[in-house]
Specification:
mainly alpha
Length: about 325
């Protein structure tokens, strides 16, 4: 890139960055509602995962080609490779996480996927020489503890007879896929933090979403996933998913990477289940059980703690 703008200081993000945080949480929280509606139309999970990225890419294409093509052309070979890796890992995240729901419960899958911030923090420390303050670490642990509390409480309230060996193996496959999804999204967030220092958000997400879509296409072909023949309402749901949780939600997270470390940004996703629960009450009249309310409060407290801490590089600069 020629004469890249310096990265914004993470000590003084603009007020709009905090407004984007709220928009990101609200938009991403709608994903669970839209997925339920799409599954209700008998749409396969792989199609749902691919569609949200494909739709976002198509919408961003004319904007990118008209206003940001010079940014794409000026990408160095290293930057393009990093963006490609980011897109591939985003595809791995969606495919692994969605596939895990075919083998294990939503509860187990979500609890494992929410370990993503841990992997982001570890990768930032290793590759970006980021140093986390004690308050950030404590907040991260508290937020993750809230998710674990929700998971363990839910499992404890649904005891059954001992699983058969086959059922245990199936659950293990689901847990492994969830873990792959958590690590993959951590890599995606980490690379995004690096590239967003020099590349504007629109050409970056267009490139990453497009590569991610292309990476998923062979999976669609190999699994013979049907694309046509579903209801008109189902396709409207897919359109909404591409517009709201993907284009607004995930894109907002990429915007925030310009102002906050990836560890902190990844913690915002910890609030997604809370927003989803609120929307479930509104759309499906589903009241969350007490343990989910308590766990959600713990998560919020952890995010607030982390937001009060500092993240510095190895030289001590904030």
């Amino acid at each position: 890139m020629t004469n890249p703008a310096p990265a914004k200081s993470i000590d003084s993000p603009p007020l709009t960055a905090y407004a984007v945080i709220l928009a990101a949480i609200a938009s991403m929280s709608s994903a669970a509602i839209l997925i339920r509606l799409a599954l209700g139309e008998d749409m396969p999970p792989v199609l749902i995962a691919v569609s949200r990225l494909f739709i976002a890419t198509v919408i961003l294409t004319p904007i990118t080609l008209n206003k940001y093509w010079s940014d794409i052309k000026n990408l160095t070979r290293t930057e393009f490779i990093l963006a490609s890796i980011s897109g591939i890992f985003l595809a791995i995240h969606f495919l692994a996480w969605v596939s895990s729901l075919q083998y294990t419960t939503v509860l187990v899958s979500v609890v494992i996927v929410t370990t993503g911030p841990i992997w982001v923090a570890i990768l930032e420390v290793i590759f970006l020489r980021i140093r986390l303050s004690q308050l950030v670490i404590i907040g991260l642990i508290v937020a993750l503890a809230g998710g674990i509390f929700i998971g363990l409480s839910g499992l404890g309230g649904n005891t059954e007879s001992t699983q058969s060996a086959a059922e245990a193996d199936t659950t293990m496959i689901g847990a492994l896929l969830s873990w792959v999804g958590a690590v993959a999204v951590a890599v995606y967030m980490l690379i995004g933090r690096k590239l967003r220092a020099t590349l504007p958000v629109i050409p970056y997400i267009w490139l990453v979403y497009g590569i991610s879509t292309l990476a998923m296409m062979p999976i669609v072909l190999i699994t013979s996933t049907p694309v046509l023949g579903f209801s008109f309402e189902g396709y409207l749901v897919l359109l909404a998913m591409g517009l709201i949780p993907q284009l607004i939600g995930h894109s907002s997270l990429n915007y925030l990477l310009e102002y906050f470390p990836a560890t902190f940004v990844s913690m915002f996703t910890q609030l997604e289940p809370i927003g989803s629960a609120i929307l479930a009450v509104i759309f499906f009249n589903e009241l969350p059980p007490t343990h989910q309310v308590i766990g959600s409060g713990i998560i919020i407290f952890g995010v607030l703690l982390a937001s009060r801490g500092k993240v510095t590089n190895s030289k001590g600069a904030s």
